[in-house]
Write a structure and sequence with these properties.
By secondary structure, this protein is α/β, with parallel strands linked by helices. The protein is built from ten helices and nine strands. One of its GO terms (molecular function) is ATP binding.
Length: 279
């Protein structure tokens, strides 16, 4: 059964209010559309009245990132949402989310300044702003995010804690292809040759975990080895390869606390991100 699509704040609030009156918990999965099995897994993990938002958020795109070319596949997205068990799709237009003269933004300091934030200045300000707006609109009990976007999930969790937003943030495991490539809407842009070598990104992360498990605790050496491994992938250009504190996302000298290896790699013009918790 296809879930209904609503496009206005008033309509999604009315639907959520009706579900809450029926004693249903409200779950929320925010997306930009172009959905895949990773998104479906988030929907399936949700319980109760499940709202999926589909909104290509202009404020998280940089000046050299083509907002206009981001894939819009609403019919396929609706079908996937229905098969995964979504109750409602909220697909607002830009004017609905950002009325004229909107001047307020949300910025989570430090967590968004490096990794993807260094390469995409202003990106996480846009993410936090739209997610907080969506939380205020949908008012969910639980919101589901994917671990592939580790930095984003940590930033959202920090925002929720700092601003006392009454929502539980749950981070679901990364969904991968059989060969290890993390599912992403951007994978569709890979050429056949690029797709063939893309799984090596995850293999290099796994090698980093093996090094750490074998006793290497110097973060700089782990980073150097990871970057060198990634550079061997044909056609790859490494944006970053970092080992950071799993909680604060700050650089580490030694693996004396929970850590995550996080990478961003260009294959051709396609930027892929992935991560793996080390300890």
């Amino acid at each position: 059964m296809l879930p209904p699509i609503v496009t206005t704040i008033a309509d999604v609030r009315a639907a959520v209010d009706a579900a809450r009156a029926a004693q249903k918990p409200i779950a929320f999965v925010p997306t930009m559309g172009a959905l895949h099995e990773g998104h479906a897994a988030l929907v399936r993990a949700a319980r109760g009245f499940v709202v999926v938002s589909i909104f290509v958020n202009p404020t998280q795109f940089g000046p050299k990132e083509d907002f206009a070319k981001y894939p819009r596949t609403i019919e396929a997205d609706q079908k996937l949402c229905g098969e995964a068990g979504a109750s409602l799709i909220f697909a607002p237009g830009v004017e609905e989310m950002y009325p004229t003269n909107s001047v307020t933004f949300v910025d989570v300091a430090k967590l968004g300044d490096h990794l993807c934030g260094a390469a995409r200045p202003g990106h996480f300000r846009g993410v936090c702003t739209v997610v907080l707006k969506l939380f205020n609109i949908v008012r969910p009990d639980v919101a589901h995010f994917g671990a592939k976007d580790y930095q984003q999930a940590r930033i959202i969790a920090q925002m929720v804690r700092d601003l006392n937003v009454p929502v539980e943030v749950r981070v679901e495991p990364t969904i991968r292809e059989a060969d290890g490539l993390a599912l992403s809407s951007r994978n569709r842009y890979l050429s056949a040759d690029e797709r063939a070598v893309a799984p090596r990104i995850y293999q290099m992360l796994q090698a980093t975990r093996v090094r750490a498990a074998a006793g290497e605790i110097d973060a700089a050496r782990l980073e150097s080895a990871l970057a060198a491994d990634l550079a061997t992938i044909p056609g790859a250009r490494v944006d970053y390869a970092r080992v950071v504190d799993a909680e604060t996302l700050q650089p580490l000298a030694r693996l004396d606390r929970p850590a995550v290896a996080a990478v961003a790699v260009f294959l051709g013009t396609t930027r892929l991100i992935d991560n793996l918790v080390l300890a």
